[in-house]
Every structure is written in C-alpha cells, then in structure tokens.
Amino acid sequence: MEGTQPLRRRPHTMQYLLKATVALVVLVPLAARAEGQTYLGPIPYTSAADRPAGFLAGSFVLEDFEDSSLDFGLRSANGLPIGPGTNTDSVDADDGSVDGFGRNGHSYFSTGEALIEFPAPVREAAVVWTDGPVGTRVEFEAFGPGMVSLGVHGPFQHANGSTLGQTDEDRMYGIQHAGGIVAIRLKSLDGNTTMELDHVQYESLGTSYCAANANSTTYPGIQTVVGSSVVAENELTLVASRLPDSSFGYFLASRTQGFVPNAGGSAGNLCLGGTVGRFTAQIFNTGMTGSAAVPVNLSAFPTPTGSVAVQPGETWHFQAWHRDSSGGSPTSNFTDAVSVAFS
Q1: Contact 223, 48 (CB under 8 A)
Q2: Contact 51/171 with Cβ under 8 angstroms?
Q3: Residue 216 has pLDDT above 50, yes or no
Q4: Which residue in 223, 254, 251, 221 sits closest to 338, CA to CA?
C-alpha cells in the first residue's frame, strides 16, 4: 500500500563503516513504564506476508516510502526517504520481486535514532529495520499516551556487515498495547548509528473505496481513520495525507455512499451521497507535511440541519476536500473515502 516530495540525496553510505562507539543506555524507571504491552520480533521480513498470524489482522495502513514521502499522518523529525540506489535497502518485495536485494525500492534514512509518531493512539504497530552500521545492536521502543515508555526491546544483533542493499538482515519489530501506542523508536547503538527502515504500519479503521484523482502532488490523496469504532469510547481521528503542502481543507461525513465526478467544479470525485456533513468548524491546513489529522466528536457530527450523534449499528463514510491548483489556476480536489461500521 502506498501509503511527494522530490528525491533527496542520501548521505554517503561509507559512513556505515566507522568504528563502533560506546552507546549510552538510559534506564527507564519501572514506575514510568506502562503495562500490558507485547513486543514482537525481530522477525525476518521480505514482504508484508511475513507478519505473524493475527498481528494487524484487521484494517491497517502501510507506509513503504515508494512515493518518496512520509504519509498517513506519520511524523518524524530526523530522517528522509531515499532510493532507489546501489546502497538502498528497501523491503525486498517493494521492487516487485523477492531476490535478496532492496536496491530498486525506497526506504527511510535516519541518523542516531528514528522516532515515528502516529496521528492518534493505535493498538498495534510495526516497523522494519533494513540497514545500519556493521555489527550494530538494534533497540526497539514504543510509547503510550503522554510519551510514557512501554519498555525497551533488545538490543538484538542481526546486521550483515554489508551496505549493498542485501535484505537477509531485515527484521520486523512490532508492538501490541490495548492502552494505546503514540510513537515507536528504532536505534542503532553502535558505529555511526545511521540506519534505514521501511514498512511502517499501524492499525486503522474501516474499508477504503472510491479512487481519488491525482492532485498537484501527482498522487491521489488518502483518507485514513484511526481510533475506535465503539461509539461509547468516542475516540475517532480523521487523517488526510498525500495532499499539497499548505493546503486548506475539511472532512466530510455521510451515512450514504455516492459518486459525483468533478463535484462543484473540482478536479476530484465526491464519494458521498445523501445528507453530507462538513466539519467546517475544524478546517485544517496541511503545513509542510502534506497531511492533517482531526479528532472528531461522535456525539456531535455536523449535518445541514444540525448536529447528530453516531449510533451503534450505523455505518458512516468519510472523505476529505481540499484546495489545490492546476496549471497555476486555483481548484479543489478530494481524497478517496473510507467506510466505518460503528458498534
């Protein structure tokens, strides 16, 4: 799945060969750690089919960086997508074949540590470590609400000592935590601590439908829904990504699917029908990330005739509208849509 920036030059990969340095290990007091978490891995990984049975078995999103950007509302302050290239170590299957090499795909390059934040708390998440310094030890850590550590998993040693894109060292690290996961972190403890990662994935809600037209990024916008489908829990976040930078927009909701091409003179498809509510009180701006995440209140969904409460047994459909430009002229567009059945 891929979940639009120009490719950026990768730092020289010979730095992987620097001598190891002493790693500083920070011990987290037990009182500050959340309980009830289950760590998975490191698991040899060549494609999404290598996830263990029952893990991310429902709806999920998978960021494979094949569009050279960080989508699905994910945030990371210290890395960049790279590839393809002789030294790129993407997940093996991302270039269309499992052949022991990841050179023809994309990955995410980071130095020191890679902290990936989710747009809202999730209960299951994973990432694949694909490359790092020779002989490095790898640590995986997850964080619950309030950035409370869920504990450090590792260190483990599985680096193959090569920087030429071989995938036999690639390992998946996963976490399950019913209390919520807000971020995950990978560290290469030794050498110059540079690393590559790929296939960031996390639990989502609903079923996608209705293909979007490409916007000015040259890619179609993506609608994602995160949180809980249990009405009583009232935890739902709508996420729009792969949109133009600094674009204004808002989310739409309806109990009815539909299809209206070029709705309102836009360049996209409205995938909702019937009574359509607009979350105009929560207008978003995508900033420099091309994405936006908006928590919504299930007891007060907007409709043209006033707010309504979502009821157990109902299915709602969500989509995002956003401003855009085409050939220098202003226009607008839509993401794809997602259906969520509530209980």
Answers
A1: no
A2: no
A3: yes
A4: 223
What contacts 57, CB < 8 A, 6 or more positions away?
Answer: none
- pLDDT value at position 18? 28
Cβ pair 222, 209 in contact under 8 A = no
String of DSSP letters for 228-250:
---GGG--EEEEEES--TT-EEE
Tokens in use for 298?
């299930």
How far CA 27 is from CA of 40, 70, 148, 149, in Å, comes to: 21, 30, 13, 11
CB-based contacts of 26-34 (< 8 A; 24+ apart in sequence): 28/149, 28/151, 28/152, 32/148, 32/149, 33/148, 33/149, 33/150, 33/151, 34/144, 34/148, 34/149, 34/150, 34/177, 34/179
- Per the structure block, which two tokens stand in for 248? 């204004």
- Identify the residue whose tokens are 């639990």: 203
Please list the residues that pair with 224 across neighbouring strands: 239
From residue 149, alpha-carbon distances to 78, 93, 156, 178 in Å are: 19, 32, 19, 14
C-beta atoms surrounding 159 within 10 Å:
23
29 preceded by a cis bond (ω within 30 of 0): no
Instruction: Give the tens place of pLDDT for each residue, 179-212.
Output: 999 999 999 998 888 899 999 999 999 999 999 9
Instruction: Specify whether the CB–CB gap between 217 and 243 falls below 8 A.
Output: yes
What's the chain's length in residues? 343
With CA atoms as reference, report the closest residue to 253 among 235, 272, 226. 272
pLDDT at 28 over 60: no
Distance CA 21, CA 19 (A): 7
DSSP designation for 265:
G
Cβ atoms within 10 Å, residue 142: 26
How far apart are the C-alpha atoms of 223 and 67, rounded to whole Å?
16
State pTM to two decimals.
Answer: 0.85
